[in-house]
Specification:
The protein is of the alpha/beta class. Helices cover 57% and strands 10% of the residues. It has 2 domains: 127 residues, Rossmann fold; 70 residues, no CATH class. Strands 2-1-3-4-5 form a 5-stranded parallel beta sheet, with helices on both faces. The longest helix is centred in the middle third of the chain and has 48 residues.
């Protein structure tokens, strides 16, 4: 998206915090422009003249935002920022040399490229682009966190459902009662429900290992079944008590 100083700027008209900015341009005059203007806008700046320098400076400084010309002498400016985003997502303002349709299409495919400027860059346009790119990046990061939390919640739910199945199988309880016992254990132990569920699943693996197998050196299958029955009874007793320990000890 092209930005101009007449575009609406988020958060009341500017970037409220000081940003660490790395600006890359092969033209020394534009590097000097960024050195003068960005501190005047309240930001710290480090300049680079090549794509390699841009990547290296970003790895060293971990900037809050990158301004990159396209092309750069040793590589395509967009290729440089794509390399950066593989290591760590960072908001990018791209400054293409002209209206390159192919470059524009590639830029649209990179979620970190959040604004475009065209030379000659004006101070007001740069200020607006900084605010816009930073605001959009924060929204993007917030959405990523929400997706990650939803994905984790789904995985936790699957784990809890499996643990509930173990209680239904070995505790001979209904689905609702199994869930209530899980909640009781979590409350008594002051732990997350998913942590208790994981412990229940570990216990289920123990029970499965105590199933009716032949033990030639320790007797018949009957003794193994009896051992499993006693362990299961102990498991159920502990679930119904204070819940200080979930996984039974092998005898």
């Amino acid at each position: 998206m092209k930005v101009s100083s007449t575009d609406p700027v988020p958060d009341g008209g500017g970037v409220s915090q000081s940003l660490r900015v790395v600006a890359a341009d092969p033209d020394p005059a534009w590097c000097e422009f960024y050195r003068e203007v960005l501190p005047r806008l309240g930001h710290q700046v480090c300049v680079a003249a090549t794509g390699g320098q841009l990547v290296e400076q970003c790895r060293l400084l971990s900037p809050d935002l990158v301004i990159a010309a396209a092309p750069l002498p040793d590589r395509d400016g967009l290729a440089a920022v794509e390399r950066l985003c593989q290591d760590q997502p960072i908001p990018i303002i791209l400054v293409p040399a002209d209206d390159d349709a192919v470059l524009a299409e590639r830029a649209l495919g990179n979620p970190c490229v959040l604004a475009c400027l065209h030379k000659p860059v004006k101070e007001g346009d740069l200020k607006a682009a900084l605010a816009l790119a930073r605001s959009r990046f924060e929204q993007f990061q917030s959405l990523c966190r929400e997706v990650s939390e939803l994905r984790q919640a789904l995985e936790d739910r699957k784990l809890i459902e499996r643990a509930k199945g173990v209680l239904m199988k070995y505790g001979e309880v209904s689905e609702e009662e199994g869930y209530q016992r899980l909640r009781k254990l979590a409350s008594v132990q002051n732990r997350k429900l998913v942590e208790v569920a994981q412990e229940i699943l570990t216990a289920g693996e123990v029970f499965q290992g105590l199933g009716p197998t032949h033990e030639r050196d320790q007797g018949s299958t009957r003794s193994t079944r009896e051992r499993g029955r006693r362990t299961r009874s102990e498991f159920i007793r502990r679930l119904s008590a204070d819940g200080r320990r979930t996984v039974p000890q092998e005898e």
